[in-house]
Structure prediction request, 776 residues.
Amino acid sequence: MKCFVCQAEFSGSNMLVRHLRLVHGYLPGRNLRLKCAQRDCGCVFGTFSGFRKHLNTKHLNYFDQQADTDVNLQPDVAVKEVSTTGEVVSTNVEETPTTSEMLKSSNKSTLDMCASTVAQLRAAGLSQSTVNSFVSSMEEVFFEIHTQAKDAALQSLPSQDTTKAKRNRHFKQKWATVEPVEMVLGTRFDSRRNKITGTFDRVIVTDRFAYVPILETLKTIFQNHHVVDMFKSRNMSREGVYADLIDAAYVKRCPLFSAEKDALQIQLFYDDFETANPLGSKKGVHKLGAIYFTLRNFPPIFNSLLVNIHLCALFHAQDSKRYGFNSILEPLVNDLKVLETEGLKLPMFKHLVHGTVIQVTGDNLGLHSLFGFVESFAARYCCRFCLLEKDCFQSVFCEDDSGVVLRTLDMHKQHCESVQRDPTLPHVCGVKRTCLLNSLKYFNTANNFSVDIMHDILEGVAQLEVKLVLQYIQENFLSAEQLAGRIHAFDYGFNQQRNRPPRVKLFDGSNDLGLNAIQCWCLLRNVPLMFGDLVQVGDSYWHLLLLLLQIVNIVFSPVLSEGMTIYLKHLIIDHHKLFKQLFPTLSLLPKHHFMIHYPRSIRNIGPILHMWCMRYEAKHNFFKKQLKSFKNITMTLAKKHQSCMAMNWESFSLERLALGPGKMVILGELKEGPEIALKFGAALSTSVFTAKWIKHHGTEYRPDFIICTEVVSEIPVFYKIKSIVVKDDIVLLCGKLMETLCFDDHYHAFKVRMHPNMVLKVLNIKELCYFKPFDL
Prediction:
C-alpha cells in the first residue's frame, strides 16, 4: 500500500495507517484528510477507520490483509509458535466447543461494556455527533493498543505515569499547554458549613480569578508553522479602501504600528455570561466575566474561528464590582507593558517583536463598565464617543453638528483627574473612574473606536423598527393570523432555514420582537420579499425599512470605500429624520445615537463588522456546556479551556475544508467534463470526486445554490452551481451564468434569470473570497 505523502510502500493497511500517524503526524480531527494513493483511485477520507475500511474492501488485490501476523486456525492443524527461549516449537491446536463458547461469552461481555459506555455518554446529554466522534476516536485507540501489544511496546507507558500531575505534565510537553494562574483579589466574610459540628460558621474567604499569561499564549501561537506563514503573507493596504485595520487611520497614526509593521495588534473583548440557569433562583450567583483576545495581524476569515479567540482572564462578575476592574486588569496590563517596552522573542523573527492593545470591543454596557463610564444609558452623558446630552439625541443626527463635542485624549484625562480629586462626584461628563488600560504607552480608551453592530442594530434598532413596520402592515393590510402565516410559511432557503424567526411578538409593550440577533437579521433581509406586494411604492413606512436595510448592507460589509462612509452618514441622517416624522411620540434609542458615530469609526478602524460580538459570544458556549463543579469554577473552566485549545492547535490547519458524501467518477462522464479537465489540466479519463456539498471556511456550497463571482460595472455576476468536483487539494464549482435584469428598490433584491446562452464557468473555490452563496 502506497503512502500519498512520501510514496513509501507497505504490506498492509494497518502498517500504512501507523506510518501516517507516527511518521507524518496525522491525527484524528475535523481537518484530517487522507488520500488513497492506489492506482486509479483518488478517494479522500476524514477518518482513519474509513480510510482503512476502503483499503481493505476496494484494494484487496494489492495486499494480503493478515499475511504478517494472523494464522488461520483449523481443528487438528499444526501451528508453529515461538517459545520464550526463541525456539520454534510445533503444537496441535484443537478448537473445542468449550473454547468457542468462552470466546463468544468474552466477545458478548466486551460488546455489553462498550454499549454501556456509549449509553452513559448519551444519558449525560452529549450530542449524537459527539458520541460518534468519541466512538471513532476509541476505535483508533484500541487499534493502536492492539498494534503496540503485538510489537511488545506496552512498556513505553508504565503504570506510574498515569497520575494526574504526570498526565498534565505530558500534555504540557506534547501540546505546549499554557496553564492558567490563580490571582488573589482580596478577602471577605462568608458562611461555610463546619464538617465537625454540621453548623454554618462565618469564615474568611479568599476571592480569586484565573489569569492566562498573554505572553506565553503569544509564544504558543507562533509555534505553529501555518500561523507563521500566514503572518508573513499579509495583504498590503490600499488607499481609500477599508478592508482591515491596517487600511484605516488609527494604525497609520499610532507610533508603534506605523513604525513596526510586524508589531502585534491585540484586540481585547470583555463580556459577562451565565454558567447556571439564567432564569433560575441562582441567576447572577455563578455569573462569570471573561476577557478574550484575538490577533488582528491575521485576516478576519482566520480570526472568525473560535480556536483563534484566546482566553485572558476568567472571574466572577460580582468580583468586578466588589474589587473593581483595575485589580483584574493588573496582571494583563503588566504583561502588555513588557510587550510594549521589552518585546517578545518569536522564532520567526531575528529581532524582538513589540505589540500592544489596538482596540477593545464588547457590548455597550460591558465597555462602559470596563472603561469607567456611566453604566446607565438614561444618564445625561451616556455616550462614550461624545459629550452630547441625552435630550439632544432626538434632534442631532450627525457628528458634524455644532452641538456634538467629540471626546479627546486630553479631555478624557481631565475628566479622570477631576473624579480622582473629588471622590464625592458621581461622575464628570459621564466618566466615573479611570481605566488601568490608559497606563499603557500606546493605547488609551479615548481612542477606542469599536462599536458593536450586533447589539446596536440586530438586537436594538432593527427589532424596534421591523416591529413598528409589521404593526403598520397588520393594521392596514393583513390580520394577525395572515401576517404570522406569511412569516412562518416563507421559503427562507436551505442556508437560512435554521435561522428562520419563530412567532414574533408585536403588541407586548416592549421594544423588540423577542428574537436573537441572527433571527432578526434573517427576518430583516426577507421582510421586503414577504410583504412588498402589499405596500404601495413610495410608502413612508416602507421607505424607513429600506433605509435601514441600506445602512445594514454597508455596516455589515467586509470591504468599504471612503465614499461609502460619506454615503452612510447621509443615510443615517435621512433614516433618523424619517423615524421622528413617522413616530413623533416615540424616542430614538441611545443605540440610534451610537449609529451617527459609525462613519468615523470605519475611517479609523476599518470595517466595523470585524468588531462585533457575535463570534466572541459564541466562545461563551464552551464554558456554558461544560460539566462543571461550582467550587473554584474559574480555575476549573480555565484549565479545561486551555487543554482543549492546546489539543486543537496541534492539529490546526489553514485549509478549513469539509467534504460531504459523494462518489468517484470519470471526467468524461460529466457534462461539464471538458471545461473541468481544462481547469485541472488533466485528461478526460481522470478520476475525480463529486461531492453533494462542501464547506470552505465555514461557508457551505451545494448544487442549485446561487453564488456571486464578481462585480462588473457595479452589477453583480451570478452563477448557479451545477456540480462540485474535487481532485487532490483543488475544489471546483461548476456553475451556469445567470442574467441580472435589475435591482428592484421596492423589494430590495436583484431580479435574475437563467442566461439565454447557458454560459458555463468553472471556478476554484478559493477565488470566492467574501461572496456567500444563497438560494434563489
User: Anything to note?
Assistant: The radius of gyration is 31 Å. The longest strand covers residues 730-744. Residues 63-97 have pLDDT under 50 and may be disordered. Residues 97-123 form the longest helix (27 residues).
